[in-house]
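The records we work with from here on pair a chain with its fold. The integers have meaning only within a learned vocabulary of local backbone shapes. A complete example follows; check for yourself that the lines match position by position.

:::
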Amino acid sequence: MGWMIGVDIGGTFADFVALEPATGHTVTLKVLTTPDAPGQDIAAGLRRVAGAGVAPAEVERFVHGTTVGVNTIIQRRGARIALFTTAGFTDMLELARLRMPDPYSLFCERPAPLVPREHVFAIRERMDADGGTLVAPDAEDVAQAVAAARRAGCDGVVVSFLHAWRRPLHEEQVAAMIAAIDPALTVFRGTEVWPAIREYERTTTAVLNAYVHPRIAGYLARVSAELTEAGIRAPLLLTTSAGGTMTAAHGRRDCVGMLLSGTASGVVGAGVVARAAGARAVLTLDMGGTSADVALLEDGQPSFSTGQAIGEFPLAITTVAVMSSGQGGGSVVWIDRQGVLQVGPESAGSTPGPACFGRGGTRMTVTDAALLTGILGHGDLGFGAIVPDPALAEDAAAPLAARLGMSLAELAEGVLRVAVSGMLVPIEQLLARAGVHASELTLMPFGGAGPMLGALLAEAAGMKRMLVPASPGTLCALGAVAAAIRVDRMRTVLLPFDDATWPKLHVILDELADEAVTAVAGMAGPGASALSRAVDLRYRGQSFELTIPAEGCGTAAELAARFHAAHERSFGHAETTAPLQVVSLRVSSSRPAPPIAMPRQDCVAHPAREAGAVQLYADGAWREALLFDRQTLDPGAELVGPAIVTQADCTILVPAGWRARVDGLRNIEMEHG
């Protein structure tokens, strides 16, 4: 097979990996993102990839992850859309789940919905909970709503009715009416996007899809044009929130499927490295310019969840289970009204970027703090894209230091400690839910800023081991290349779970499997696909459910036993005699990407070759640290902290008390104590 290219667009840099699968030969690079001109960063990166000897005509797979959709939601730059919903339920988005984002804050405010109340229109229709028609959709209501939506300047409509999860007939009828009245309106149905029970989550997911659709569709058109201009004939594939890939044509409609694409592909890339290195229990840390994202890997496989939040809005689709905090390399440092030092969640991004980038930024960031403590400043950043300027970092930090009565170095170390403490919150939540202790895990930091603070975070969390990949700054792009084409299907059924319903459940699972396999074949062509089946179960009367894998279960009793065991693990108890209820059935179909060769070299223990010594501010004092160039570290090279390892895509901090060793895959294994 020819070259495969993976691209991940982050908050500060766009990462590129070009890979020859048979040999494992890679070309990696970074370019600054262009948020005001999406697509230009890809064009710039492709020119550099071609300059590195990758012939465009030999590219057979091009996979891309982007934050365009997420940024559209966070920045509130999406489409002006209308919501058509069941009469009597037009306050659905305002009511939500009647939960405050922060119940302990006296100043907490709920976010405004993406669809304002004046753009929500009532349609007289009603189904009962079993899907029977009580009131057919009123055509006059639809016509009046379309006219009102157009007067309000809306160019898209979401149709989401109360019991459409049971039978989407009314949504389909109203969508057809809208198309007949005004074919120029873009229409999405709630059950088309995700046919799950719970009308608020289903509707919000459909609203998110419609809200980002114009920007994503336009962006994908520009990227496709850039590929054509560059001479790349491979089809454009997109990474998905569930850690798979889909075609660009599919992504133009399934926009929510790629909202968390960059986050998920980083976890997939970490899984590739973890499996090759034999690391069984891993906590991943993806720290870029905007956020720090953590996830758990077991034998290289991520866990999945539903209900992930995008900004303040729930996303009902299946995603890789990731938790995030607003601490990244570009996170802005500030002092609150109580005089307390804070880091993030606001980010300087790539424009203007951290102050030390010299691109117009004047506010101190985490990157500036790392420069002022001596962690950074021993080489260029981002494959030479940035030469950090300490004087600019000092200018940005000076007002904050003066206000707090601290030296610049004391302030900078304090910023890093605050950033680490912010990242501990999602880690503790994730481990508590999984029932795992930090000491059982190996931390794998990646992203441009992950290895810089990884050891500090590991110490604070109680982890003793770290594994730094060979190219941590571009691991998300590697994950994009390694991701399988994947399609998820689900159907809510709300049935009692017993021997009588077991055959019916199998029939529905087979139907979903046929749909998923057909969808994968439509994107990848003929071939065998892997299937996984799961059932959402709960005790009758419970409000929420657990997703239980159904593979290998020949009877209802076997699946029930799995549920009871999962309930015991999650909540500390199980009611083995209580009746069960099936909420939804799930099927995933996937076609794996071509395997990636990761040749292992022999390791002979030897001292790492030093590149010099630098001054590092740590634990309240300046001290000497050894400097190493990662390109000179062969398998078996060993070093002890305090030390700094520089490479083209990131900087690795090895604090005092840590030992490091290069393994046969050129990962750096680190151990504390």
The chain has a mean pLDDT of 90. The longest strand covers residues 485-497. DSSP finds 16 helices and 36 strands in the chain.
